[in-house]
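Good morning,

Attaching, inline, the backbone tokens for the sequence recovery test we're adding to the shared suite. The designed sequence is right after.
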């Protein structure tokens, strides 16, 4: 998988031949300066590349075709320095297969009161050139991001930066391969879904492997390999158990999992405690340590959450807040201090840990296997989101809730798993009501790095429904939105 730093975004300036060569030379000079300024801001996660000004339908079509076929190009950014008649753009934009951002800015910040003349007006007319450009994208019903603001200000550059992360999520999603070890947990509805539809809409290649294949691979792992992995564990975590054999078993599991993933290009995987043929422990520490390195994971065969976890980790690359597979576990209903406690039976990603995780071994009430080693830790305070992708039958719906995450309010000495607490926005009562009305799963991906805006941009790029539960959510409005969306998607 490509790193976010290896992706490029192409900056395409629109114009036309009407104004003469001198104006076009100035357009080129200004656009280059703008690209340099945006790049030098240090805020962009990927490379911004200046492309020659497009002035004719053929030039526009050619640059779009080139963008479509260039593996490094994760999206295009357009800006009209002058007027660029947008019938010229139809043929090109119709072919565009990459994310598209329209940056509505202009080269000069202020009107030069004493110098302004008609030459200046002809050169600096984004105010109407960009409106012409906006019309044709609206007319073509194109999904796109519009960012408005002066290019030397931080806010629009941050918006472009966030959109770039979503666009990298789009590229990542379209090349995602993952594996399910065993099937989904019996009788569970929300972890199921249409894998063919997921590949069509989201690009996910979701493969299957019997647990026996993993067990076979584990048999090939040598003691020396396990010793090496144990050194890595000791570097990263405190080993807080005398049951070293149980930890070594997880090390062996992880080595085999990584080998299978490496050989097949899998960036995410699932396990299911009901399907552990030939295994002594449910993978716990093994999954957690792999998630720390960017792998997506889902418990109980939940491949949707596993893939979302990998996509969101790719979008968050270079940020240090953390992104984790999560589950709403239990509530704290103290009046005026309502919280959700999130955890999982083992597998919470240590990227969200507030303290150095401890490796511990405890019994697991379900699954009928030996006591598994797992990482135990508490999570940090901070603004975050939880995201859940569900299959509505005929379409995918992404539900995102803004949350205020917290280190657990009190110690829970008998709780043998990693945990995080949060106050969902606008509050637990409305959030849980909204989440349940929308059909959100108990599994989610929690991220301190990926924002709801990034997820909305990503959902728009993928062409799926997006529901945002936030500080402004009102149940009546949400009910109408869900009802209207249902009708809209039937017409689509
Ligand atoms: Mn679960």
């Amino acid at each position: 998988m490509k790193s976010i730093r290896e992706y490029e975004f192409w900056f395409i300036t629109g114009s036309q031949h009407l104004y003469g060569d001198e104006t076009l030379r100035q357009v080129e000079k200004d656009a280059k300066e703008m690209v340099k300024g945006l790049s030098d801001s240090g805020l962009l996660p990927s490379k911004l590349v200046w492309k020659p000004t497009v002035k004719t339908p053929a030039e526009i079509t050619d640059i779009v075709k080139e963008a479509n076929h260039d593996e490094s190009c994760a999206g295009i950014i357009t800006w009209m320095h002058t007027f660029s008649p947008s019938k010229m753009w139809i043929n090109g934009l119709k072919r565009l297969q990459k994310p598209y951002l329209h940056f509505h800015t202009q080269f000069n910040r202020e009107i030069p009161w004493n110098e302004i003349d008609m030459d200046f007006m002809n050169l600096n007319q984004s105010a109407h050139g960009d409106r012409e450009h906006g019309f044709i994208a609206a007319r073509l019903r194109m999904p796109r991001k519009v960012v408005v603001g002066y290019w030397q200000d931080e806010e629009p550059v941050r918006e472009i930066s966030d959109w770039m992360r979503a666009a990298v999520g789009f590229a990542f999603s379209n090349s995602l391969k993952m594996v399910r070890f065993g099937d989904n947990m019996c009788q569970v509805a929300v972890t199921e879904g249409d894998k063919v539809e997921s590949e069509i809409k989201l690009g996910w290649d979701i493969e299957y492997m019997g647990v026996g294949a993993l067990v076979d691979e584990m048999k090939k792992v040598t003691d020396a390999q396990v010793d090496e992995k144990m050194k890595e564990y000791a570097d990263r975590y405190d080993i807080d158990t005398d049951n070293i054999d149980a930890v070594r078993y997880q090390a062996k599991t992880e080595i085999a999992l990584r080998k299978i993933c490496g050989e097949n290009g899998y960036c995410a995987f699932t396990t299911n405690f009901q399907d552990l043929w030939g295994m002594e422990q449910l993978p716990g520490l093994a999954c957690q340590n792999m998630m720390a390195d960017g792998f997506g994971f889902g418990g109980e065969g939940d491949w949707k959450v596993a893939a979302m976890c990998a996509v969101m980790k790719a979008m968050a690359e270079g940020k240090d807040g953390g992104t984790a597979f999560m589950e709403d576990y239990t509530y704290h209903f103290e009046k005026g201090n309502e919280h959700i406690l999130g955890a999982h039976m083992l597998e919470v990603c240590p990227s969200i840990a507030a303290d150095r995780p401890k490796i511990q071994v405890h019994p697991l009430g379900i699954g009928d296997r030996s006591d598994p080693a797992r990482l135990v830790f508490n999570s940090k305070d901070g603004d975050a989101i939880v995201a859940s992708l569900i299959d509505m039958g005929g379409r995918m719906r992404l539900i995102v809730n803004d949350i205020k995450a917290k280190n657990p309010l009190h110690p829970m000495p008998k709780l043998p798993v990693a945990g995080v607490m949060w106050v969902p926005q606008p509050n637990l009562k409305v959030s849980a009501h909204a989440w349940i009305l929308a059909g959100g799963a108990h599994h989610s991906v929690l991220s301190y790095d990926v924002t709801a805006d990034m997820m909305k941009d990503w959902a728009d790029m993928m062409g799926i429904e997006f529901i945002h539960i936030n500080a402004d959510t009102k149940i009546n409005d949400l009910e109408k939105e869900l009802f209207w969306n249902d009708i809209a998607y039937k017409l689509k």
